Amino acid sequence: MRTKVAIIGAGPAGLLLGRLLENAGIETVILERRSQDYVLGRIRAGVLEQGTVELLDRAGVGERMHADGLIHDGVEFCFDGDKHRFNFRELIGRTVMVYGQTEVTRDLMQARDASGAKTVYESENVSLHDFDSDKPRVRYVKDGIEHELACDFIAGCDGYHGVSRASVPAGSIRTFERVYPFGWLGILVDRPPVAEELIYAHHERGFALCSMRSPTRSRYYVQVPTDEKVEEWSDDRFWDELRRRVDDETAEHLATGPSIEKSIAPLRSFVAEPLRFGRLFLAGDAAHIVPPTGAKGLNLAASDVGVLADALIEFYADRSPAGIDGYSARVLSRIWKAERFSWWMTSILHTFPDTDTFSRRIQRAEFDYLRSSEVAARSLAENYTGLPI
Ligand code: FAS
Ligand code: PHB
């Protein structure tokens, strides 16, 4: 079998790259380890930057997002009960879209299925070969039968635990990492959101986030120790803890109910460099991880593949290598700025086990500076709504 671009992974990065390339007449094959239902069953991101919305429109999958997504002009920070709203539209004339990653993935999957482009779900033992030559190959097993896919390029969109980054010789790649001493326990509940916009809460007991998926479905998180077990958290225990970390008004208006999903996600910052190895390119979580505090993970994956798609389209149109040669440096510059913002948001909003009174005063000063300085607030707004691609 042969194709132009072999894409490893059918998460948002792989599916969006596939759409952008197929729309430009460039044939792709996506190899995904899991089933479609499994991929759709993962509950993850919730906030889209305007740049991501524009890319999804360009991919031709924006209809349901514009119909069901919620435009948010800002967010609220709550520091030990003090609340302050940051109005992004007033500060910098930009907004964000609340539309769950599950729905983005569903829209991309449906468009790909309708186009007839080939996706091999439940492909096993994917391995990458000869990507340091101009004849790269991918091998995989499907239903017990071995296959080989010859291609021009391989896009490693297979996430943090994928095979693509692991296939790069150790001496050819550097990684940078910070693992945080806590995780996020998240629940999904079919109850109206407690507020119109997201509330990021700092409290001495730990961070909490009030988010949403629609006017009738909410998403909440509380910071938990890294060794916490989700089975030790009943719904009642979760709601009690959330109420203690937010302001009184929010606690009073919280509409609680049975969780329909409950899971703990670890928090880490991670970047691999470079992101191009001959005919292999890394994009999305295969290339980087951010703590979800800044709502950057999904958005970075989208901006990576937007740049990679343009580079590959240019190569096939003009045989020009300029875009593919410049891919790694270009996306890494934006990745590191998103890493900085996500680390900063995580640092000011979470309670660190080894913290001291000086560090807690600095966190409070960060909040006081943000709410008293328009310049500081504009910087927050610029980063949260997404830096230029
Ligand atoms: P993904 O991990 O989504 O997709 C990679 C795909 O590759 C998967 O479908 C996987 O099955 C497949 N794959 C892996 N190995 C393979 C192999 N060997 N062969 C074939 N396929 C293979 N971001 C936010 O902005 N906000 C959040 O709240 C948030 N919460 C998160 C919670 C969790 C538990 C996790 C893990 C991430 C969260 N993220 C969040 C980040 C998340 O949204 C990612 O940034 C986003 O999924 C990145 O998309 P992809 O790069 O496509 O990677
Ligand atoms: C979510 O709704 O899942 C969400 C929103 C904002 C974040 C992280 C997660 O920063």
Please explain how this structure is put together:
This protein starts with a strand and ends in a 5-residue tail after the last helix. It folds into 2 domains: 5-70 and 97-177 and 268-346, FAD/NAD(P)-binding domain, CATH 3.50.50.60; 180-267 and 350-385, D-Amino Acid Oxidase, subunit A, domain 2 (D-Amino Acid Oxidase, Chain A, domain 2). Strand 1 (5-8), helix 1 (12-23) and strand 2 form a beta-alpha-beta unit. The longest helix is centred in the C-terminal third of the chain and has 28 residues, at 322-349. By secondary structure, the protein is of the alpha+beta class. Helix 1 (12-23) runs parallel beside helix 6 and helix 1 runs parallel beside helix 10. The protein contains 13 helices and 20 strands. An 8-stranded mixed β-sheet has the order 6-5-14-15-16-13-17-20. Helix content is 39%, strand content 28%. The mean pLDDT is 97. P-hydroxybenzoic acid binds next to loops.
